[in-house]
């Protein structure tokens, strides 16, 4: 009779990340970038316009930042991204609803966008 080897212990399985956690983190980082603040200073309940003072130009900057992180958003008009979004959390939920996202670029700025990239969302 051959001795039985003990079974290899199965490593614990990490819980799946909350599907909306990544878009929330990304939106917080991009809003912070537009405002020149730290993401840690922001909370999902903050109103984009009333609490943070985000204006139309800042919304374009925010959309461009989100497009760099989620390239598929380039094909989504600004009005569709902002549909029903009053708070940071609303915007993160909207971004999550527009997914699923197969690619999320890392935070940080890349080469500046050409001027046409800033004009295109205005004509849509």
From TrEMBL:
Pfam families: PP-binding. One of its GO terms (molecular function) is phosphopantetheine binding. Residues 18-99 form the Carrier domain. Keywords: Phosphopantetheine, Phosphoprotein. This is Carrier domain-containing protein. The keyword Cytoplasm does not apply. Residues 1-21 are annotated as: Disordered. InterPro entries: ACP-like_sf, PKS_PP-bd, PP-bd_ACP. It comes from Streptomyces capitiformicae.
